[in-house]
Specification:
There is one protein chain. The chain is α+β, with helices and mostly antiparallel strands. The chain has three domains: about 45-155, Butyryl-Coa Dehydrogenase, subunit A, domain 1, CATH 1.10.540.10; about 160-260, Butyryl-CoA Dehydrogenase, subunit A, domain 2, CATH 2.40.110.10; about 265-410, Butyryl-CoA Dehydrogenase, subunit A, domain 3. About 50% of the residues lie in helices and about 15% in strands. It has twelve helices and nine strands. The strands form three sheets. It has a four-stranded antiparallel sheet, covered by helices on one side. It has a three-stranded mixed sheet with strand order 1-4-5. The radius of gyration is 25 Å and the shape is globular.
Length: about 425
């Protein structure tokens, strides 16, 4: 009797001779691109434009996909991606520069779509570098400033930032309080900026400040200038793979040639923002494509109740809804891009594109997250990252409310801005 219990214990701890059943989950393949174009919105795209799209897609599939979940989880900034994007000529956002091949607006848009399809932070790195910093200098800079900065920014060998938003002035950025005081043949900048992508890791920041005349002006500020203090914002649940900074400008002294001669009022700032607003819409389309692809692949591979999820009526209804939304976005953005290319896109039209795209992508991400069940909250399964990153996209470069007020003013002829 005394030996029976130890023998029973030994038997209980011995390894099983047969494998456990029903406890192993397959690895889901969720990244395969789906070239969905039910309405033929992308038909007739030139080979040159497709080359940019395909290069961006290859970069996402081979370089971003294997590592991005871990980078995003750890809130690291993959600066090497910025340089790599420059090497692939994927940073210019449609700005033509000497020594570079022509890049059409559509090529830039397709590039942004593909980068966002892979990851929102990676797309934002390109948007800040090319769409905002490089574009500001190209539009408003002097010849000397363009010669100094445009090529390094386009090649990703130096990093730029766009410092407009302030801690107490987000949507009402026209009311910014950072000052640029003329002094001793130059300028002294004092104030605060917040949510500035690459503002703590780069070489130059395009800083928007109010000059002696009360107008908003633009300045090129070295990030190592005395008095420029940038603190990386922590604790974000969105765009975790790009660092955004809170910047203190404590009596930053600049020479006269730091001012961009073409940046003399908020209209000049708005010109840059309007040009990038459509790019934000294309980024939202990329997110929408990413969550749609993931939902379709998962529905076909995930088995519940003895059959793939895709064989369920409710799942097919959800996928049909998402395809309808995706097709509507593709059609709208292609038409708006054609209008912009012809110089016919209005500010309210750009706002409508951003408003519609981010709202739609947000809804699609929520649908896809729910379809994946518990697996939908794992960053490695794509949807959770897209779901979180769209929240930032929905807000920056004009919140939904601000876009609605711009559109509403166009509809009614009356301003409802408070």
């Amino acid at each position: 009797m005394s030996n029976s219990k130890p023998e029973a214990s030994a038997r209980a701890s011995a390894p099983r001779a047969t494998a456990l059943q029903g406890t192993s989950e397959p690895e889901y393949a969720l990244w395969e691109p789906l070239d969905v174009d039910v309405a033929g919105a992308f038909s007739g795209i030139s080979a040159d434009d497709l080359a940019y799209r395909d290069r961006a897609r290859e970069f996402v599939q081979t370089e971003v996909r294997p590592v991005i979940a871990g980078i995003w989880d750890r809130a690291e900034y993959p600066l090497h991606f910025a340089k790599r994007l420059g090497e692939l000529d994927l940073l210019r956002d449609g700005i033509d520069l000497p020594g570079f091949p022509h890049q059409s607006l559509l090529a830039a848009s397709l590039t942004m779509m593909e980068l966002a399809r892979g990851d929102g932070s990676v797309a934002t790195i390109a948007g800040v570098q090319g769409g905002l910093a490089l574009r500001s200098i190209a539009y408003c800079g002097s010849e000397e400033q363009r010669d100094r900065w445009l090529e390094p920014l386009a090649r990703g060998t130096e990093i730029g930032a766009f410092a407009l938003t302030e801690p107490t002035h987000g949507s009402d950025s026209v009311s910014l309080e950072t000052r640029a005081e003329s002094r001793d043949g130059g300028y002294v900048l004092t104030g605060h900026k917040k949510w500035i992508g690459s503002g703590s890791v780069g070489q130059v920041s395009v800083v928007w400040a109010r000059g002696d005349d009360g107008q908003v002006q633009g300045f090129l500020v070295p990030q190592n200038a005395p008095g420029y203090r940038a603190t990386t914002i922590e604790g974000k649940v969105s765009l975790r793979a790009i660092w955004q900074a809170h910047i203190e400008l404590d009596g930053v002294r600049l020479d006269a040639d730091a001012k961009m001669p073409g940046a003399n009022s908020f209209k000049d700032t708005a010109r840059v923002l309007q040009a990038t607003r459509l790019g934000v819409a294309w980024s939202a389309l990329g997110h929408a494509l990413g969550v749609y692809e993931t939902a379709v692949h998962y529905a076909k591979q995930r088995v519940q109740f003895g059959r793939p999820l895709a064989a369920s009526q409710i799942v097919q209804a959800r996928l049909s809804e998402m395809l309808s939304q995706l097709t509507s976005l593709q059609t709208l953005l292609m038409q708006l891009t054609r209008a912009e290319d012809a110089g016919e896109l209005s500010g309210p039209g750009a706002s409508l594109g951003k408003y519609t795209a981010t709202r739609t992508a947000r809804a699609m991400a929520a649908n896809a997250r729910d379809l994946l069940g518990g697996n939908g909250i794992l960053t490695e399964n794509r949807v959770a990252r897209h779901f979180a990153d769209i929240e930032a996209l929905h807000t920056y470069e004009g919140t939904e409310t601000v876009q609605a007020l711009i559109i509403g003013r166009e509809i009614t002829g009356m301003s409802a801005f408070a």
